[in-house]
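Researcher: If only I could read backbone structure tokens as easily as an amino acid sequence. Walk me, if you will, through where the backbone shape changes along the chain. I have put the entry right below:
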Amino acid sequence: LRTVLFSEAGAETGGLVADDYRRFGASLVATRALGEQLSLRLEYAYTRKDSELAGRDYEDHRVILGLFWRL
């Protein structure tokens, strides 16, 4: 099991209105070998963005299931 935490503060200035924001999140990743060359990975990731502009905040939840083959 692997965990990742992150935090980011930034500014978007390329549009019509400048936006200062803060984004943070976490993810959990579990990997299981299914043989010498095949493995299965399950990941859950959460991200939240807090913006100074109305309507620009969001929360993102992702679940990713992957099958990997090593050559």
Notes: The CA atoms of residues 27 and 45 lie 4 Å apart. The mean pLDDT is 94. The first strand starts at residue 2 and ends at 12.
